[in-house]
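Posting this for the archive.
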Amino acid sequence: MLGDDEAIRRYLTPRFLARSALIAALYAALTLAVAPLSYGIMQVRVAEALCVLPYFTASAVPGLFVGCLVANGVGVAMGLGAGLPDIVFGSLATLAAALLTRAMRRRYLVPLPPVVVNAVVMGLTLHAVLRYPLLPSVAWVGLGELIACYGLGVPLMLLLERHRKRLFGAEQ
């Protein structure tokens, strides 16, 4: 386990912060670019393809969380989503999924945490806030996540794998 000082030196570098900010901006921009499709019971967030990034770099964890927080906040301000619970629970679900993805070592499992976590958390949120039926909510959110994370995320992961050393250096 890293000591506090060592962790700060390792993670709070300009490169780490810049990479996190870039990922956050990209996630928010991609989500908002296809805004109607990014919110609701059957959401396919193109930006969720980026949820494979924690496999490559730790800076993706805060980047995805902040990007999701921004996208959810702006989406709610635009009248999309499930209000404050969407901002809070949706963003925390993305953070939890990113941390679980970061821990994955088997490549074929990398896209799974965002699918499962978001299906359950957002399904429950849509059920509690908007009174959508629970099981269909979980299933529809899960289907959208499958499309984004496996349909778009796996090809992205394979592309990044080919350029891993140049893009991410020796980071594990």
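The longest helix spans residues 134-162. The radius of gyration is 16 Å.
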